[in-house]
Amino acid sequence: MQKSETILQNEIRAALSKYGKVYRMNSGIFRTFDGRFVRCGVRGMSDLLFVGNGYIAWLECKTDKGELTFEQAEFLKNMRELGHRASVVRSVKEALKIIKSEGEAEKMIKIDYKGLTESLIPEGQYEVVIKSAFLDATRGGTEFINVQFVVRNDVEQKYKNKYIFYQVWKKKEPSEQDKICEGFSSKQLFKLCQAVNIPAEKEFANLDAMLEELIGKPLLIGVKHGFYNDKKQENVSFMSVTEFPDCVHEFRKINSKLENKTEEIIINSDYLPFWFANLIYEEIRFYGIILKMKIDGIIPIFILEGKNVRQ
What we know:
Layout: H1 5-16, E1 21-24, E2 28-31, E3 37-40, E4 48-51, E5 56-61, H2 70-81, E6 85-89, H3 92-99, E7 124-137, E8 143-151, E9 163-169, H4 176-180, H5 186-195, H6 207-214, E10 218-228, E11 231-240, E12 263-266, E13 281-286, E14 289-296, E15 299-304
Parallel strand pairs: 5-6
Antiparallel strand pairs: 1-4, 2-3, 4-5, 7-8, 7-10, 8-9, 10-11, 12-15, 13-14, 14-15
C-alpha cells in the first residue's frame, strides 16, 4: 500500500529533526470559524522548510506517483536560483541527501585501528625519578607496594613524563628479613634503595619511613615487555644508580587550582567501609596531592591540603 503524502511528511520531519529545525509550511485558502477566508503562504510553496547550520532547504514531499504543479516547480526553481537547497523528495533517504552537504556521509562512529601506536613505552633504558611509593592492593585484596617511576624531563631522552609502574609483592614464604619488611620482598626493596644511593646500614623505623625516603630519588631502570594473563605489559628488568644524580625534574601539576586551598568535607560514617573503624590517622598520596583522613568520633574528616608531595 502506497504511503500518503501526510505520512511521508511526518516520517521526513522526524528524520530531519536530528539535524536541525523542520517546519510544516501550510499554504492555500482556509476558512476561519467566523466564516472569513484567509490565504496562507504563497502559491506553490514547498511542504517543509528545513533550517540547518547556516543554510535552509525547501522540500516538496510527493508520493511515487505524485506530480509537481506548475507553481510548485516554479517555487523550487526560484529558491535554487537564490542559492537555497530545494527539491522534490519521495522518501526519507532523498530528504537526508538534500539537507546534507555535498559528499557528506551519514555520521557514524566507525572503528579504525590503522595508525594506532602501542601505548606501552618501548623496551630500553630510562632515567627516571620516583614519583610515589605506597602500600596498595589489587581488586582481589592482594597487598603490594606500588612504586611509580616517571621518565625524567631534565635529561635528554624520549618519552619524558611517561609513567612506569613497579610492584613489590609479599613473599609466600617470607624470610626473617622479609618479615621485618612486613612480609614484602626485602631483596626487591633493598635493590631499589641501592639504586637510589641510600647508604648501606641505614635504619628505618618502619616500612612507611623507607618508602618515604624513596620519593623524589632518581635512578636508571631497564624496561622489558612481557605477558601476564595474555596481556602485554611493561616490566622493570633492572635498576641501577643514575648517570645524572643532579635531578631537577619538574612534575606536571594535575590541577593548579588545588594549590594553596584547604577544604573540609564531612562524610557520614554510615556510607564508609568497615575498615575505617580502625583508621586513626593516615596519609594517602595520589598524583602529588595529599589527602589526610582523621577520625573524629565516628565521623571522619577529609582535609584536602592541595600541596604537592616532595616536588
